[in-house]
Request: fold
Amino acid sequence: MADAPKKPVKLPRTAKGKKPIYFDSVTDKLLSMVLTLMGELSVTRDRLDTVERLIEKHALFKQDDIETYELTDAVNQIRTERRAAYIARVLKSVQDELESLQQQGESTNTEVKP
Reply:
């Protein structure tokens, strides 16, 4: 029997233990989002710089081609999915807080009352 392709194992990416608080919790969440955005933007700028240098080196197309580019449905779907993942990364600290509050509410609601 041929070996079936193996799917990569996806492990949860949740840190254990309490998060340290440097300022107040709201400021810490905002700082976390800003730092995430900084990381994302830094990587994007480096990749864009690489692409622009390769385009110039190989004279692949004109700058006007970028301005007149028509987006296909397939490309739009890819960008929409990538954007949703990006937003989830940026708002991760807020989502974690919501999940924590929901879990606290569920444990309070499931307690047996005498």
